[in-house]
Design a protein that fits this description.
By secondary structure, the chain is of the alpha/beta class. It is about 25% helix and about 30% strand. The chain has helices at about 20-30, 60-70, 70-80, 90-95, 190-205, and strands at about 10-15, 35-40, 50-55, 85-90, 95-100, 115-120, 130-135, 140-145, 150-155, 160-165, 170-175, 175-180. Helix 1 (about 20-30) crosses helix 5. The two termini are about 30 Å apart. It binds glutamine. Glutamine binds near residues 57, 59, 119, 147 and 148.
Length: about 210
């Protein structure tokens, strides 16, 4: 599906490929808008020429460890500080959050999203579920798959809540960061990948490195 009409040609989206559902993100981004390319990011040099980064679902504490051992943590933090947009889903939101509850003691996050996130916040009783979610900017509900999802317990005033489920934010954004506690990469619905690409195209055009 290609539903875009904005200038996305030549946009390269890096996908953090240390662990988790990274190839599903690659497939989604390559289909969603004309000319979007993706690249797996495993080492600091893989970030060269990448316009934005996706952090997939998986296991955030494992990713945190691998980010340290690969030296990617500091490289990504530097790029985020200079404005690189990031799309984080599930474990990716945990990696982006300013404050992580119930994380491993040594777990690190980028503090790029002014939010407090509790790992596995829905608990063991309902660790996986699906729900149709109304998302700001999308005309029809999004079929959301939650897998041992985190709960966004609070967000700062600079964070826009795009969707809630049961009164809890499940999709949030700033001008550069989009965080989703479910897994849009595990469905055929590409609208949230499209929403991220469309949000970042304008800001990248004015801030090309
Ligand atoms: N519970 C996982 C974590 O703490 C996230 C689950 C997921 O990404 N599906 O990282």
């Amino acid at each position: 599906m290609n539903v875009g009409n904005r200038n996305t040609a030549g946009l390269t989206i890096g996908v953090l490929a240390l662990q988790g559902a990274f190839s599903s993100h690659q497939r989604a981004f390559e289909r969603v808008r004309e000319g979007v390319r993706t690249r797996q990011v495993r080492l600091p040099r893989d970030l060269d020429g990448v316009d934005a980064l996706a952090m997939p679902g998986g296991e955030s504490s494992t990713m945190s460890q691998l980010l340290g051992s690969s030296r990617l943590f500091d490289a990504i933090a530097t790029r985020i500080a200079s404005g690189m947009p990031v799309f984080g889903t599930c474990a990716g939101v945990i990696l982006l959050a300013k404050s992580v509850l119930d994380g491993r003691d040594d777990q690190r996050s980028f503090a790029a999203l002014n939010a407090t996130v509790r790992r596995n916040g829905y608990g063991r009783q309902i660790d996986s579920f699906e729900a149709d979610i109304v998302v700001a900017g999308l005309h029809a509900p999004f079929p959301a798959v939650f897998i041992r999802a985190p709960i966004i317990e609070s967000v700062g005033t600079d964070v826009e809540v795009l969707a809630t489920h049961g009164g809890v934010p499940v999709a949030v954004a700033t001008d550069r960061i989009v965080g989703i506690t479910f897994h849009p990469e595990l469905t055929d619905d590409l609208r949230l990948h499209g929403l991220f690409v469309d949000r970042i195209v304008g800001s990248l055009a004015t801030n090309r490195r």
